[in-house]
C-alpha cells in the first residue's frame, strides 16, 4: 500500500475533520459515500479502498471522514447537506487546493453538486457514480424513518441491513465487510441523522448551474439508486457525459468496477492539462446554431410496465429513429440522456424539418407508442470538448420541458428566423424560464398540417 498522510482541519462551525492525502499529481477529492471511515475501510474493505486508488492513479487522492464518523469528531447532532458541504470546504481549503476533480457516489452526490455550484472556478471536473439529486426519489420518508429508528435501537443489525440494501444478492462477502465497516465507523445515532439528512437533500434546482465538466455513471439495473435519477442528473447538468452500465451496480468496489474505473479514468484524463484535447472555449462562430432537445414522454412508466429487457428494446428503437433522422437532416448529436437527445444544427430550417420528421416518424411507429416532446432554440452557444453550454442551451432545454407529448415548441427568435418558410405556428403565450429574468413567448409548430 502507498503512503497515506492523515491530517486534521476545522470547519467554520468548529468541527474537527480528519482527512488523508495519498500520492502526487492533480488533486482528486473523494466525498464519503455514506458513513464509512477511510481508515476502517482500508482494514476491512481493501477492495473498495483499492478502487479509489485505481481511479486516482497518477493523482493526489484526498479522502476524509465526514463529521460524526471515523477519525473526525463524533456524537454530533448538526448533520445536514449544509454541514456536509462545510466539511468538504474545510478539507479543500486546509489542503491548499486551488483546482480539483471530485468523485462522489451514493449519498455523496448532492454535497459534491452543491460544492461545485458554490466553487465553479475551483472544481474542474466531477464524476458522479450511482447517485441522485433528490433524496426523496430514492426512498420514501416512511422507509427512511424506519431505517433511522432501527439504527438508533440496534445499530449492529441496522449496519448490516444498510449494507445489504443493494449488495447482498450478488456479493455476500463484500456486504458483510461493508456492514462491519459501517458499524465501526459511526454510531447508530450518527447513521440515523445522516440517513435523514440524505433524504432531505435536494439539489435538483442547482443542476443547471453546474459549470464543471461532469461524468454521470450508473448501472441500468441498479436496485436502490434509480436509473431515472442518473438520467435526471445527465439531462440537467450542462456539460455532462452519461455512461450507462449493464448490471445491477451497487458500490463500485465489488461489481462493475472495470466499467466505472475505465469511464472515470478516461474522463479525468481527457481534461488533464498534459493530455488536453479541446481548444479554448469559444463561441460557435459567426453563424447561428440551432439547439434541439428531445424527451421521450412516459419513459419511466414504460420501463416499469414493460420491464428492463423489453423497455430497453423500445429505447433502442427510439434511439435508432432519432439518429437516422438527425443524420438525414444534417444534425450533430451532442449527447444522449437515455430517454432524450441534444443535437445541434447549422441551419434553423433543417433543424425544424428534422423536428417535424421526428414527430411524424414517432406518430407512425407501430408497436409500443413513442411520444416525444421537442424544444428548439437558436443563438451562439459556447462549445468545448464537443459539448455545448450556455444560455442558448439552457433555454432550449427549458422550452422542451414545457412541451407536451407530440409537440414542438420554439421561442420568438426561432419563429422569426423561420418566417416565410411555410411553417405554421400557434401562439402558446409567455413564460419565465427558471434562471432567466425575462419572459419568453412560445410557439407550437403545427406539424400535422
Give a written overview of the molecule:
The protein has helices spanning 38-44, 46-55, 81-94, 108-118, 141-153, 155-164, 172-185, 188-200, 227-236, 257-270, 299-306, 308-328, 348-364, 391-402, 412-417; strands at residues 4-10, 16-22, 27-30, 60-64, 100-106, 123-131, 213-219, 240-245, 282-283, 289-296, 332-336, 340-345, 372-379, 382-384, 387-389, 408-411, 425-431, 440-445. The longest helix is centred in the C-terminal third of the chain and has 21 residues, at 308-328. Mean pLDDT is 85; it is low at 273-287. With 449 residues, it is an alpha/beta fold. Helix 1 crosses helix 2 and helix 6 crosses helix 7 (172-185). It has an 8-stranded mixed sheet with strand order 1-2-4-3-5-6-7-8, with helices on both faces. A 7-stranded mixed sheet has the order 11-12-10-13-16-18-17, with helices on both faces. A 3-stranded antiparallel sheet has the order 9-14-15.
What topology emerges from the helices and strands here?
Blueprint: E1 4-10, E2 16-22, E3 27-30, H1 38-44, H2 46-55, E4 60-64, H3 81-94, E5 100-106, H4 108-118, E6 123-131, H5 141-153, H6 155-164, H7 172-185, H8 188-200, E7 213-219, H9 227-236, E8 240-245, H10 257-270, E9 282-283, E10 289-296, H11 299-306, H12 308-328, E11 332-336, E12 340-345, H13 348-364, E13 372-379, E14 382-384, E15 387-389, H14 391-402, E16 408-411, H15 412-417, E17 425-431, E18 440-445
Parallel strand pairs: 3-4, 3-5, 5-6, 6-7, 7-8, 13-16
Antiparallel strand pairs: 1-2, 2-4, 9-14, 10-12, 10-13, 11-12, 14-15, 16-18, 17-18
Essential attributes:
single chain, 449 residues, alpha/beta, Rossmann fold, Alpha-Beta Plaits, 2 domains, eight-stranded mixed sheet, seven-stranded mixed sheet, 15 helices, 18 strands, 40% helix, 23% strand
Amino acid at each position: 500500500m502507498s503512503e497515506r498522510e492523515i491530517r486534521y482541519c476545522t470547519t467554520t462551525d468548529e468541527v474537527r475533520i480528519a482527512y488523508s492525502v495519498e500520492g502526487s499529481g492533480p488533486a482528486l477529492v473523494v466525498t464519503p459515500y455514506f458513513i464509512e471511515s477511510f481508515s476502517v475501510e482500508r482494514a476491512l474493505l481493501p477492495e473498495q479502498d483499492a478502487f479509489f486508488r485505481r481511479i486516482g492513479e497518477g493523482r493526489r487522492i484526498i479522502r476524509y471522514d465526514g463529521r460524526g464518523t471515523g477519525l473526525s469528531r463524533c456524537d454530533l447532532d448538526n448533520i445536514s447537506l449544509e454541514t456536509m458541504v462545510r466539511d468538504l470546504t474545510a478539507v479543500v481549503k486546509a489542503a491548499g487546493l486551488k483546482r480539483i476533480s471530485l468523485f462522489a457516489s451514493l449519498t455523496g452526490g448532492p454535497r459534491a453538486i452543491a460544492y461545485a455550484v458554490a466553487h465553479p472556478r475551483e472544481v474542474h471536473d466531477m464524476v458522479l457514480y450511482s447517485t441522485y439529486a433528490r433524496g426523496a426519489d430514492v426512498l420514501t420518508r416512511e422507509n427512511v424513518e424506519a431505517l433511522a429508528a432501527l439504527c438508533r435501537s440496534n445499530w449492529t443489525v441496522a449496519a448490516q441491513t444498510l449494507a445489504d440494501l443493494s449488495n447482498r444478492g450478488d456479493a455476500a462477502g463484500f456486504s458483510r465487510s461493508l456492514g462491519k465497516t459501517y458499524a465501526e465507523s459511526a454510531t447508530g445515532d450518527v447513521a440515523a441523522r445522516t440517513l435523514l439528512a440524505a433524504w432531505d437533500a435536494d439539489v435538483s434546482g442547482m443542476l443547471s448551474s453546474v459549470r464543471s465538466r461532469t461524468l454521470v455513471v450508473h448501472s441500468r439495473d441498479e436496485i436502490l439508486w434509480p436509473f431515472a435519477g442518473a438520467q435526471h442528473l445527465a439531462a440537467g447538468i450542462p456539460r455532462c457525459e452519461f455512461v450507462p452500465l449493464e448490471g445491477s451496480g451497487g458500490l463500485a468496489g465489488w461489481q462493475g468496477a472495470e466499467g466505472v474505473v475505465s469511464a472515470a479514468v478516461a474522463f479525468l484524463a481527457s481534461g488533464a492539462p498534459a493530455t488536453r484535447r479541446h481548444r479554448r472555449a469559444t463561441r460557435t462562430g459567426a453563424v447561428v446554431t440551432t439547439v434541439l432537445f428531445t424527451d421521450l414522454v412516459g419513459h419511466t412508466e414504460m420501463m416499469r410496465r414493460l420491464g428492463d429487457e423489453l423497455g430497453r428494446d423500445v429505447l433502442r428503437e427510439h434511439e435508432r429513429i432519432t439518429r437516422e433522422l438527425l443524420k438525414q437532416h444534417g444534425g450533430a448529436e451532442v449527447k444522449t440522456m437515455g430517454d432524450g437527445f441534444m443535437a445541434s444544427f447549422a441551419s434553423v430550417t433543417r433543424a425544424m424539418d428534422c423536428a417535424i420528421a421526428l414527430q411524424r416518424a414517432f406518430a407512425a411507429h407501430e408497436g409500443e407508442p413513442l411520444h416525444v416532446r421537442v424544444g428548439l432554440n437558436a443563438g451562439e452557444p459556447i462549445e468545448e470538448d464537443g459539448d455545448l453550454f450556455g444560455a442558448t442551451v439552457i433555454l432550449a432545454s427549458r422550452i422542451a420541458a414545457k412541451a407536451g407529448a407530440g409537440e414542438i415548441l420554439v421561442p420568438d427568435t426561432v419563429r422569426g428566423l423561420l418566417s416565410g418558410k411555410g411553417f405554421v405556428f400557434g401562439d402558446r403565450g409567455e413564460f419565465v424560464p427558471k434562471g432567466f429574468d425575462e419572459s419568453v413567448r412560445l410557439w407550437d409548430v403545427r406539424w400535422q398540417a
